[in-house]
Amino acid sequence: MNKLKVVRDELGLTQQQLADKLKISRSQVGNIEQGIRSITPRIKRDLIEHLKVNPNWLESGEGPIINKTDKYDDYELDDKEREFIDLYESLDEDSKNFIIETMKRIGSNKKTE
Predict the structure, then answer these.
(1) Of 48, 54, 82, 87, which is most buried with the most CB atoms under 10 A?
(2) What's the CA gap between 72 and 106, in Å, rounded?
(3) Each residue of 23-58: pLDDT tens digit?
């Protein structure tokens, strides 16, 4: 099976979504997956740098397909959301409960506005 298709399936992306992430056309993704075209050095670099594809797997097929470098890799979080989670995780249980209750109050106030 073509490695680009394996990566796309592993990431749960459509051809168009992968094309958008790699800044190439959907037809180029399809051509690579069908073996009509090869993965260019730029696409290979983008797979490794932006989509966290394991370079060893790309070369040899060995090891995990995706390098998970931190606990947030399965989520699309911005820097503020990551910071919030990190801060929340550093709190004691009473402080966590206080934050949860405060957020609930803020959420219910927004619904009544």
Answers:
(1) 54
(2) 26
(3) 999 999 999 999 999 999 999 999 998 898 999 999
DSSP per-residue codes, 38-56: PPPHHHHHHHHHHS-B-HH
In what helix (H) or strand (E) does residue 108 lie, and over which residues does it extend? Answer: helix 93-112
Task: List Cα–Cα distances, 73 to 53, 60, 80, in angstroms.
Answer: 12, 23, 15
Extract the tokens encoding 31: 């051509």
Q: Please, are residues 27 and 34 in contact by the beta-carbon 8 Å criterion?
A: no
Burial class (CB in 10 A: 0-12, 13-18, 19+), 6: middle
Q: How far is CA 111 from the centre of its chain?
A: 31
